[in-house]
Design goal:
The protein has a single domain, classed as Response regulator (Rossmann fold, 3-Layer(aba) Sandwich). Helices cover 47% and strands 19% of the residues. The protein has a five-stranded parallel sheet with strand order 2-1-3-4-5, sandwiched between helices. It is globular and about 30 Å long. The N terminus is likely disordered.
Length: 137
């Protein structure tokens, strides 16, 4: 059960249903910045963070997020490997690759594992736009 489902009973009573977002990046400063940007948006709640791909898979199983923001280059398991594992576990959860690396080959590889969008780090406006689009906000 994800955050949206947990709050479904409150929706009938007129409460707002936040969308649960998992942020995955090996840099704590980046995770904090992304959290600040997303939580400043109405309807978004960062329900968890992970510092590598393996931890992302574990956290996603536990938290059942509505959206995952994923870095590419991380220790233990990179973003492409983690995304491939996550798509087999939860195929309906959209993943946005948020990376300093940007190329046609990366985008092709990202899409081949089920990543729905690739946004360059630092482009917070497009990160929010993609999140809204993928979450139907």
């Amino acid at each position: 059960m994800n955050v949206s489902q947990r709050f479904a009973g409150d929706l009938a009573e007129g409460w707002y249903v936040p969308k649960c977002i998992l942020i995955v990046d090996d840099n704590a400063t980046v995770r904090k910045a992304v959290r600040s940007v997303l939580e400043a948006q109405p309807g978004f709640e960062v329900c968890g963070e992970a510092s590598n791909g393996k931890e992302a898979v574990e956290k996603a199983r536990e938290l059942k997020p509505d959206l995952i923001i994923m870095d590419l280059s991380m220790p233990v398991m990179n973003g492409l490997e983690a995304s491939r594992a996550l798509k087999s576990l939860m195929p309906d959860v959209p993943i946005v690759m948020f990376s300093v690396h940007r190329s046609g080959i990366l985008e092709k590889n990202a899409r081949s594992v089920g990543i729905r969008a690739v946004v360059p780090k630092g482009d917070n406006i497009n990160l929010v736009k993609e999140a809204r689009s993928l979450l139907g906000n």
